[in-house]
């Protein structure tokens, strides 16, 4: 790698966790992407790409976009799909010490690409591993253990209040994928963890399935 004998360096995960003798077997697995840096908080010189491979649950293919459990009750499924997307922002901003900002934008300008629904918030952000986990169908965001890094670390179920206030809509980890593929053909998530300088972008399309 062209490292001089007297030069210091670290090896980290994409979440900037330094690889040490103690955590090597835990963090270094087949297919994992690693950074070779001068320091853990070094600014990346250019964008990096990581291909994510996972086996989708069959319900992702069979049920996504159908919303059969809403339609069967004779209700319009679109508000439920939007609620699932907003639920992620409610969760991300739940620990904000200042103002919680959640914006919903409907984009129809052909010059910017295909029409889209954009949900923007000022929440705590997600790491690359948490973005990866988002794609896994039926991986409940409240019960992820072991190899799964939850986007609800330290989650404690709130007191009984309307679900629209406590971010409990997609408790079973299913809603986000169904909502995305009900509204459109692909999802793009751009997120910057609050304690990191890195910006992560995740893309998942119907063609990938």
Output the keywords.
209 residues; alpha+beta; Heat Shock Protein 90; 2 domains; two-stranded antiparallel ribbon; 7 helices; elongated; SMHD1 protein; SMCHD1; HATPase_C_sf
Mind explaining what this structure looks like?
With 209 residues, the protein is an alpha+beta fold. The chain has two domains: 1-54, no CATH class; 58-149 and 165-205, Histidine kinase-like ATPase, C-terminal domain (Heat Shock Protein 90, 2-Layer Sandwich). It has seven helices and six strands. It has helices at residues 24-27, 58-63, 68-71, 77-92, 128-134, 163-166, 175-183, and strands spanning 10-13, 34-37, 102-107, 116-121, 186-191, 200-205. The strands form three sheets. It has a two-stranded antiparallel ribbon. It has a two-stranded antiparallel ribbon with strand order 3-4. Strands 5-6 form a two-stranded antiparallel sheet. Strand 5 and strand 6 form a beta hairpin. Helix 4 (77-92) crosses helix 7 (175-183). The longest helix is centred in the middle third of the chain and has 16 residues, at 77-92. The protein is elongated, with a radius of gyration of 19 Å. The model is unreliable at 140-156 (pLDDT under 50).
